[in-house]
Amino acid sequence: MTVWDDLQGQAPVVAQLRQAAQGEGLTHAWLFTGPPGSGRSNAAKAFAAALNCEQEDVALRGCGECHSCHTILAETHSDVTFVRTEKLTITIEEARQLVAKAGDRPSSGRWRIIVVEDADRMAERTTNVLLKAIEEPTPRTIWMLCAPSPADVLVTIRSRCRPVGLRLPPAAEVAALLVRRDGVEPDLADRAARAAQSHVGIARRLARDPEARARRLETVRFPLGLRGVTAAVMMAEKLVKIATDEANSSNEERDAAEKAALLASLGAPDTGTLPPAMRSQVKQLEDDQKRRAKRSITDSLDRTLTDLLSFYRDVLIIQLGNAVDLVNVELRSELEAYAAGSTPEITLARMDAINKARVRITTSNVAPLLAVESMASSLIQ
Questions:
Q1: How far apart are CA 347 and CA 351, in angstroms?
Q2: CA atoms of 185 and 39, how far apart (whole Å)
Q3: What does the alpha-carbon distance between residue 337 and residue 328 come to, in Å, rounded to a whole number?
Q4: Does position 253 have pLDDT exceeding 70, yes or no?
Q5: Where are the beta strands (DSSP E) in the chain?
Q6: Contact, 202 vs 306, CB < 8 A?
Q7: Which residues pair with 287 in a beta bridge?
Q8: Cα torsion angle, 372, 376, 378, 379, sign
């Protein structure tokens, strides 16, 4: 098993990165782009492992078996730094720390590698902090930035990076990966891959979690009962609640564990008031957790609206003659009945309303419920 095995449906990308790992076309800065679920960060991680692989034969680098490959894939290698944020943005201070880290010589591997998984989460002034380090890197340093599209990164940065473009793999290949790597039953793997629209991470969650599958099905079926303003308001409330509950369920336990670990590391007393120095650190942690919770809810709601969008996508496919496979095959009869009651133009307008809501929620400070209520009113039959 090599480090490339999990990059399903990315043969051209694997060929490009293998060649670079062997020394042909290797450069100091790379920009990995592709839609959510395409495996941008996985490709960067595999590339980092191949670059520092211990195999002497360059053709075998990325073996997935040596100590270096194992530690990089586990994100514990001392020379490879992975940066991701669960907050809304990567801060300037975090960017400055990366620049300082990039100046260090590698301690055991060939290269000091910095992988920034959320390059699109940096404001312009934050990105400018990285510019000089990427423009004039130290001799043994390689930067790997990940973003949904080249347009999400400042032109001054992307012009200095070699592009690596990924695509969403076919659902059949995602299903095969779930069967091979996670031991999922083939029929369930196929349904999860289609429902996730080839997003590998979401497909794995749907395959493993029956409650997640139930929540998604409930979301997709909402338009079937949308018959008036009251129903639209209720749908909006339910959609926001589904997204919020899903985000909070994963945050609450982790927040408590992080706080307990911080208090233990500070030697905080079991009872009584914390000293001022400790209170400030606890407050900083709580502020970070609140920012993370806000992003979690935003991301969860965006995914919920993507699931809703798949309903109208299938309706449009039926209205245009079933040229490609449906995402929600189990709802075919209901989708066909719904499609018969409107036109492709109406369906496209409804899809546009959902996409506008997604943009408002992820790029502005609008209250999510207001944005979803406005969207839901546009979907009334």
A1: 6
A2: 23
A3: 14
A4: no
A5: 29-33, 80-83, 112-116, 141-147, 162-165
A6: no
A7: none
A8: positive
pLDDT higher than threshold 80 for residue 364: no
- What is the homologous superfamily of the domain 11-165 according to CATH? P-loop containing nucleotide triphosphate hydrolases (3.40.50.300)
Strands 141-147 and 29-33 turn out to be parallel
CB neighbour class for 294 (10 Å; exposed up to 12, middle 13-18, buried from 19): middle
Question: CA-CA distance, 176 to 199, in Å (whole number)?
Answer: 13
Question: Model confidence over 76-134: pLDDT tens digits?
Answer: 999 999 988 766 677 788 888 888 888 888 888 899 999 998 888 887 778 888 888 88
Residues 6+ apart with CB under 8 A from 10: 38, 39, 43, 166, 167, 169
Helix, strand, coil shares, percent, the chain, to 5: 60, 5, 30
| Residue 279 structure tokens | 């209170």
Contact 226, 376 (CB under 8 A): yes
**Rounded to an integer, what distance in angstroms lies between the CA atom of residue 87 and that of residue 92?**
13
Exposure letters 147-178 (e unless 16+ CB within 10 A, then b) = beeeebbbeebbebbeebbbebbebebbbbbb
Angle at 79 between CA 76 and CA 80, to 5 degrees: 65
